[in-house]
From TrEMBL:
The protein, known as: Transcriptional regulator
Transcription regulator PadR N-terminal domain: residues covered: 18-91
Protein origin, superkingdom: Bacteria
Organism expressing this protein natively: Granulicella aggregans
TM regions (residue ranges): none
InterPro entries, alphabetized: Metal_resp_DNA-bind_regulator, Tscrpt_reg_PadR_acidobac-type, Tscrpt_reg_PadR_N, WH-like_DNA-bd_sf, WH_DNA-bd_sf
One family name in Pfam for this protein: PadR
Length: 111
């Protein structure tokens, strides 16, 4: 059986998925990307060239904080954590995503 190829992350969904993954606790950047990949049944692939600029934007907006630490492979990494503002942003983006998804599904069923 042929395996499904991994897909690049749609840019509009990346912030939502990062916020959701960080809701469970702080992670370093590579772990965020891996968690998204695993939770998507290895369908979604987050490229480093998109992940780290997105995390930086999220830091500037106050949705996440970052602290230096040591990874499980003994490397110096930044651990990202969700802030109160990030939790509010997650709720808002989840509601928007749900409305858009419902609208698309309605069109697909009825068109």
């Amino acid at each position: 059986m042929k395996s499904m190829p991994t897909l690049s992350m749609p840019s509009g969904a990346l912030i939502l998925l990062i916020l959701r993954v960080l809701r469970s606790g702080s992670l370093h950047g590579y772990a965020v990307a891996q968690r998204i990949h695993v939770l998507s049944s290895e369908t979604l692939q987050v490229e480093e060239g998109v992940l780290y600029p997105t995390l930086q934007k999220m830091l500037l907006k106050g949705w996440v904080t970052a602290e230096w630490g040591v990874s499980e492979t003994n490397r110096k990494v930044r651990f990202y954590s969700l802030t109160t503002a990030g939790r509010k942003q997650l709720q808002a983006q989840q509601a928007d995503f749900d409305r858009v998804t419902e609208a698309i599904q309605t069109i697909l069923r009825t068109a």
